[in-house]
Design goal:
Elements: H1 9-19, E1 28-31, E2 40-44, E3 49-54, H2 67-76, E4 87-91, E5 101-105, H3 122-140, H4 158-173, H5 179-190, E6 200-202, E7 211-213, E8 220-223, E9 230-232, H6 234-245, H7 261-264, H8 269-280, H9 288-312, H10 318-325, H11 328-340
Antiparallel strand pairs: 1-2, 2-3, 3-5, 4-5, 6-9, 7-8
Helix pairs in contact: 3-8, 4-9, 5-9, 5-11, 6-9, 9-10, 9-11
Protein name: Phosphotransferase family protein
Organism: Seohaeicola nanhaiensis
InterPro entries: ACAD10-like (IPR052898), ACAD10_11_N (IPR041726), Aminoglycoside_PTrfase (IPR002575), Kinase-like_dom_sf (IPR011009)
């Protein structure tokens, strides 16, 4: 069985001593319990802490776990209005620890895992969501030519490309027939809107728990987990936020379904979308149900891959992976419901 739970700290230390200026060991490695796709470790050293993010070992789906792309996009965004961790080093030599990895700074802040934001005072919850909205709009206004990312994704209809890609990924990791997923894939093709020409940097998995906020106040210090980033259509990122909020609240669903948002101090879907459109100077967004349905479809494809890795024995967190995998038909049905709206 491929080991995703431990790290060869001696090999990492030797490599960093040779290749990372200012590095001094010894290393203590602690695995983060988040990050289903690319195992991520906190590296503690006497001088400072770092974060190591690696490809999982074992046989992987083509184009998945692209840590080199994560490193590139975050390096390109350094100094922009999109907060990211500082990138230190990319190692693509599999012989060091068995797979590619990169080293970035450890951003010392707080990770707010659930969008209910229960741990914050009520008056801060809306401010955090507005900061999330601001960063998303800034991401979609990055000049991709100026930061050297114009070739970071292929041209053409983003949604057409993504539906095709994730349909293939889903089929490659399919473990049982799910009629709702089959129907959703077909209807997304049939009901795809025409390409409106928007071409921006997109994160691909934009959620509150993929962000680090200041320990005091509501500023975002870094957006994490750029594995699915590409050049594409900005509405996919916006719809992924709305998709997440439609899931059940709590640790499993991590959504806002059934939550009294006004009492909680949180924005409605419509308020969040309107604030985003105002920041980008857009009059509004037609056919938003399609974009939400697409996000449910893509998430179903992602978690099907997580389930397959768990069954194959090389998931980053096997117990959680099996639990997450049970949501594939749920996400597929939510996608069909969104199309109905």
């Amino acid at each position: 069985m491929a080991d995703t739970q431990t790290l060869d700290t001696a090999a990492v230390g030797a490599y960093l001593t040779q290749n990372l200026p200012g590095f001094e060991g010894p290393i203590e490695a602690v695995k983060f319990d988040v990050g289903q796709s690319n195992p991520t470790f906190l590296l503690k050293t006497p001088g400072r802490n770092y974060v190591l993010r690696r490809k999982p070992p074992g046989v992987l789906l083509k184009s998945a776990h692209a840590v080199d792309r994560e490193f590139r996009v975050q390096s390109a965004l350094a100094g922009s209005k999109v907060p990211v961790a500082k990138m230190y080093l990319l190692c693509e030599d599999d012989s060091v620890i068995g797979s590619a990895f990169y080293i970035m700074e450890h951003v010392d802040g707080r990770n707010l895992r659930l969008p209910t934001l229960d741990e914050l005072p009520r008056e801060d919850r809306g401010k955090v969501m507005d900061e999330m909205n601001r960063v998303l709009a800034e991401l979609h206004m990055v000049d991709i030519d100026a930061v050297g990312l114009s070739d970071y994704g292929p041209p053409g209809n983003y949604f057409e490309r993504q539906v095709g890609r994730w349909s293939k990924q889903y089929r490659a990791s399919e473990t049982e027939t799910i009629p709702a997923m089959d129907q959703l894939m077909q209807e997304l093709v049939e009901r795809m809107p025409p390409d409106d020409g928007q071409r921006t940097l997109v994160h691909g998995d934009y959620r509150i728990d993929n962000m680090i906020f200041a320990k005091e106040g509501t500023d975002c210090l870094a957006v994490l987990d750029w594995e699915l980033s590409t050049i594409g259509h900005p509405y996919a990122d916006l719809a992924s936020v709305i998709m997440q909020w439609q899931m059940p609240s709590g640790n499993d669903g991590r959504g806002l379904a059934g939550v009294d948002r006004a009492a909680q101090g949180l924005p409605t879907d419509e308020e969040f979308i309107a604030a985003y459109c105002a920041r980008r100077g857009l009059p509004g967004i037609d056919n938003f149900g399609f974009y939400t349905a697409f996000c449910f479809f893509r998430m179903a494809g992602i978690i099907q891959g997580v389930l397959k890795r768990a069954l194959d024995g090389n998931a980053s967190n096997p117990e959680r992976a099996l639990k997450i995998g049970a949501y594939v038909p749920v996400f597929a049905q939510h996608g069909l419901d969104a199309l109905g709206r």
